[in-house]
Amino acid sequence: MDCDLHQKLQAAYSGEAFREEGHRLVDLLADYLAANTKGDATQAIPYRAPDKAWEYWSSRGPSPSVVDLARDVMAQSVRLHHPHYVGHQINPALPVTALAALLVDLLNNGMGVYEMGMAGTAIERYVVREVATRLGMPDDADGFLTSGGSLANLTALLAARAHQASHDVWQEGNRGPLAILVSDAAHYCVDRAVRIMGLGQLGVQVIPTNAQFQLRTDLLEPARRRLVDQGVTVLGVVGSACSTSTGSFDDLTAIADFCERHQLWFHADAVHGGALAFSDKYRSRLAGIERADSVAIDFHKMLMTPTLCSALIFRRGGQSYRTFSQQADYLFAQSSEPEWFNLARRTFECTKNMMGFKFYCILKTHGPELLALHVEYLCELAQTFADQIRQRTNLELAMQPQANIVCFRYVGATRDEQEIDRLNKIIREKMVKDGKYYLVQTTLRGAIWLRTTLSNPFTTPDHLQGLLDELERYARES
Ligand SMILES: *Cc1c(COP(=O)(O)O)cnc(C)c1O
Fold this sequence. Notes:
It is built from 17 helices and eleven strands. It is globular, with a radius of gyration of 24 Å. The protein is α/β, with parallel strands linked by helices. Strands 1-7-6-5-4-2-3 form a seven-stranded mixed sheet, sandwiched between helices. Helices cover 44% and strands 12% of the residues. Pyridoxal-5'-phosphate (PLP) binds at residues 89, 148-150, 153, 187, 189, 240, 244, 269, 271-272, 298, 310.
């Protein structure tokens, strides 16, 4: 290569340029944090239609600095640290985790095999153990981190099938109908995972929920018996802790009893609510989770960590090695021993970033007490918000919140369900386009409800009263 070009290539890695730009970027982000957490930024979501966003970003010219690009991204992105952000379940990243992310990305340790992520691999094991202990699991519980709750759930169901099926599915493929029992309030990724596994629609046996949107555990046994009579092999049950739409916790103890009685796999989808394990006050909502064969938990939902970071933990750690029993000899030196330090033997991912470091930083710099404070503040705020909603005659609460998710709707004077749907849809659209508050919507038993996830410690009861005032104003105008 020509010498100038080679120098240009090397200069792109300049440590000095990185230092200079890095300081400017951190200054910019620190200002963003200060302005948003105080609510000085006027909007929680500066909404742009998809076509407008595409027009802007596809036609933007070259930039002298990442700082200019960052400024534009910030001006056009939803603001999770804003007190008016009460939207989806993703939490505002704790600043220390964003600094950790910088390190993770620059070091770029690939983690597929031990040498490619020595510190990261040991850190990951520590994080998994910390969570397993909080969940009340035995000492030999073990698992790994993976890219999102959806992938954690799929991996758990693959392990369930490997363990429960009477033949070697890995070698021979599916033989005979297999099914998982799961509630109608479960996250859609469970349905998707079962279909990916080639089990089709029959593979997802949906059990109805009660008035609190919890799995009706009294219906598990009749469903199982009906399936067995039809020649279907039931692999296990997925319990939600909590469900995505309403934040409802299934009765995990009843599910554990049922699974034990029939030797079925019990997977707990604690992707959202597993965070409550960090609070002495709220841990009891997860009672029974310590008996699950596998538990999925996200760190980016309620545990202050940036996307994506999830764990899949097995009560009997050895089970975590069964999912992918195929050998990749060039990676793993043909060992059949359980090697905790070669993580890719157990994960779907080959290359994976050092995702445990961000959460590890929270544990080591702030301590787990901060996680407890966070979880408790948000769950208590949800109770306050529910009280506020109940006090307004125009509004209806879907159910008493069990975590930090609150669903409600505007009903006003009408009893016409179609009219109520129409109103709530319009209210939500108007609010998002206006951008002052960010909330979402969900469908419960066929009706449209407004859905909020109380996500950050900057949201106070006053902000929530402001949201309800605004909402009633929109309703009057609709
Ligand atoms: C969010 C969520 C998922 C999906 O997790 P991702 O990290 O978004 O893939 C699965 N289950 C439940 C209960 C959830 O709330």
